[in-house]
Amino acid sequence: MPELKLESINKFYSAVHAVKDVSLDVPAGEFVVLVGPSGCGKSTLLRAIAGLEDISDGEITLGDRSISRLAPRDRNIAMVFQSYALYPFLNVFENIAFGLRARKMSQPDIDKQVKWAAELLDINDYLERFPRELSGGQRQRVAIGRAIVRDADLYLFDEPLSNLDAKLRDGMREEIKRLHGQLGKTFIYVTHDQIEAMTLAERIILLRDGMIEQAGPPLDLFERPKNTYVAGFLGSPPMNFIDVTVRDETLILPDNQTLKINRNGKSGLAAGEQKYVWGVRPEHFSQSSKKTGSLRASLEVIQPTGSRSYGTFYLEGNHVLAELEAHIGEQNTREVTLEVAIERTVFFDKSTGEAIT
Amino acid sequence: MIRWDRGWRLGIRVACAAIVALLFVFPIYWLAAISIKTPEEIYAFPPVWIPSEIHFSSYVTLFRDGDAWSVWNSLITAGVSTVLAMVIGTIAAYSIVRFRTGGDHLAIWIISQRMIPPICVAFPIFLLYVSWQLVDTYLGLILLYTAFNVPYVTWMMRGYIQEIPLELEQSALVDGLTRWAVLRRVVMPMARAGLFATAVFTFIFAWNDFLFALILTKSEVVTYTVKVTGYFGSQSTFWSKIGAMSMLGVLPMIIVVGTMQRFIVRGMSMGAVKG
Questions:
Q1: Could you give the ipTM of this predicted complex?
Q2: Contact B168 A99 (CB under 8 A)
Q3: In terms of CB atoms within 10 Å, which end of chain B has fewer, N or C?
Q4: Site from B99, B166, B169, B171 to mutate, A interface, most A CB atoms within 10 angstroms
């Protein structure tokens, strides 16, 4: 199975520069997720790899073949589309067999391959049905079946779960990950959903305005975001950004409460007094009984989710969300004392938004 | 009281439907009746609504004299030109929709060709055909009908193709089909209802043409529409032949429309939404 290489890919739509000088190496067998808000160029990039969009500039190679100028059918790539793209006039079997027939595979081989894919995806019972007779989840399985049944060098997924309801999406996510493990093929997956990106990816490529903002393993991006954009994009609920001042070993919050910080882990913090944006994830807070070294807050809204509750409080206009224990809303007072795992939090430069390491 | 009301409404509705149906069906019935009546019954007054005997003599005459051949001529010219116009028009429409060939206005420009009153171009075309020696040939009529129908087919198919989700085609391209194969194996099946509906109307246009068939044929490829008019004479009019020939002309249409009915209804409602 060959490696995919993108070198300085650019894509213009008349005056709009949709993909800006993107370079990327995807080793064989990796599960890469391209993630970013709508309009960031992730789908364009995927479609360029598939050959459905011409690139304005750059080079795409798959193994030792340059595929930038090849027609989609000559690239040996399989793709799953957001809308499933099932042929309504063919039954499930024929939909899955479509790509094999296009490549002139013999009937016994087609039967064998379709049966294998159908078993893997648990759609054996629907092979005679037509797409209109299937539920959304079943259709998505058929669409995935149509891709995996082919022995392609690369498998592309263009937001395949975004048309499914939340519960179904969770299940399918797990299945796609299992499938990747079983097949061991290279998957490139596009989504705008950061949870999908976090849960599926071996490597996340976070895009912004047609450029790669940060790339790396999910937890790396989550714990060590390069800037406020990455930090804010990953994580649900998102990271809190609080304007703070750091003076020596003391962190001064907007309402003048103070916390002690250890500069050892934050060597990038300037000496003396400096203003920063402090990035604290909701799960960095925990309820504390200590009087010192903790933060007092008055919870204005409490949102129980069952396993945990989210409490909202304000620090001089800074909206802060803290993840607390589930029954926090049942206590008599809304006044809480919170401890912060400061070593896990991130400081950002106030003007550039870049993380201080 | 309410029941009465409903009963009335239903009655009026049925009556209206019956009147409309009668208006459409009666002329065909009358032609069929004339074609099998005796001359006495044809000219009888008050009219003979139901023929007392069935005579196929006028049909026999048409086949014996070779006049029925004109229906074959119509079938050939309308049939071949329909196939050609469908192929050319569908490919043109696909190109306009998917590759934006000719920008935003080519489709309008093409359909505007269809808006020319045929009589305006009849004389130039006749002169052209004389010099090209296409008068009274199958090729001449087929070319003309094709040229007239391609704009209609292009316009209609454009609407149907626009409704096909792009991802279906892209998926097929990635799966290993060429553009031509996508057109044949994805676009055509997806637009099937529209294809059939358009083909039926295209066929009807060519089938019903009288003007060009009259001007551009002499004896070899006279179509049935022209042949029928030959039975009207200054001395006498051959009503039974007119009836029989008209029935021969109507029959293929009834068969075509009858078998394609479900596609025509679906195709018309599909295309009507988007244009």
A1: 0.86
A2: no
A3: N
A4: B171
